[in-house]
Amino acid sequence: MHHFDVETLTAGRWRNDGGATRQIASRPAGDEDFVWRASIADIDRDGPFSAFPGVDRTLTLLAGDGVRLSCPGVFDRLLERAGEPFAFSGDLALAAELPGGACRVLNIMVRRGRATARVERVTGRVVPPSGHAGVLHVLGGHWQAGTDGPVLAPGQGVWWDADAQAPGGAVAPLSPDATALWADVAPAG
Would the pTM of this model clear 0.85, i.e. be above it? Predict the structure, then answer.
């Protein structure tokens, strides 16, 4: 497992200068034709979202007053509750509107036909299925990766490859207020 802290990840500005992305993991590493990718995005202003043809995306609000994603004739969705994932096709040309100012989101992307992703809010022990990759991002409380792994606080987390085994077999909550987002990335069918 690989540990991350959002605040120490390198931020890269978007081409349209509407925000910045902090990449957690991309597999294969450095490959534009990724199978899966996880990142944290800081959205600073209204504007277009880049299309990712052939990619399925799940966006989850982490902080801020929300973001409205719209694609004329397809959907108009306000993500206003932190920790509620929203899945959509990366093929779509979307517009983002920030009704309450800047926000931060977790962005999980998988290449259609090569991987699938399920993102959910969890409060209990997470045991990654064998052969799956994934990310666990702490929203609240404290968590521990394995029996001897680091104690994780909000804004921190762990990620693993499909061929890795979680240390101690699980990521477990350590406090009663522990909540996290778990992105389970499975090989496609």
Answer: yes
Beta bridge partners of 94: 49
Q: Do 12 and 97 belong to one domain?
A: yes
Domain boundary among 111, 134, 168: 111
**R_g over Cα of the chain:** 16
* Neighbour-count burial of 152, counting CB atoms closer than 10 A to its CB (0-12 exposed, 13-18 middle, 19+ buried): buried
Q: Tell me: do 92 and 159 sit in the same domain.
A: no
Selection from 33, 30, 79, 27 nearest residue 185 by Cα:
27
Q: Which of 96, 111, 126 is the last residue of a domain?
A: 111
Residue 2 lies in a domain: no
pLDDT in tens, 80-108: 999 999 999 999 989 999 999 999 999 99
List pLDDT tens digits, range 40-52.
Answer: 999 999 998 888 9
